[in-house]
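Side project, low priority. Logging it here so it doesn't get lost.
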Amino acid sequence: MNLSYYIEQLLKGSEYKFVLSVAFSIITLIEGFYGTLIWALIGFLAIDFITGVWKSLNIGVKISSKRLRESVTKVASYMLLITTLIIAGKVESTFIPLVTMAYYYCMFTEVKSILENLEAMGLKVPGMFTEKLENFMSALGVGTKKDDKEDENK
C-alpha cells in the first residue's frame, strides 16, 4: 500500500463524509472549539492504530515494519492535507473553513476504520452503527473493506 491507497480510502464514501464535515464545521466555527480538533483527530488515529494492531494479532497477521510504515504514510497524508489548507488559509481566507472540514473528514474516515477493525476481530459493534453505515454506503454505490475482501476471494 502506498499514498494512492490512502487517497482512495479518503474518497470512499466521500459524499457522506463531506456532508457531515460541512455540518460539524459550521458548529465548530459557531461554538469556537476549533483548537480541540487536532486532539480529536490524534485520538482517533491512535484508536485506529491500536485496533488495527489488535486485529492483526487476533487474526494472526504478522506485524511488520512495512505495515507500520503504512500507518505513518496515512498520518502524513492527513497532516499534509491539513497543513496545506492551513497555509492556503493564511493566503486566502476562504480556505479557512476547509481546514475544519478536512479535520472532520479525516475523523469520519478513522471512525469507519475503527468500526471495521472491531468487526473483523469478531466484536459485536452495535447494529445502529454498522447497519446504517453499510446501508448508506450501498445507497451511494461505494464499497467497504468487507466488499473489497469478498471481491478478492472471487
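Brief comment: The CA atoms of residues 17 and 105 lie 6 Å apart.
Revisit when time allows.
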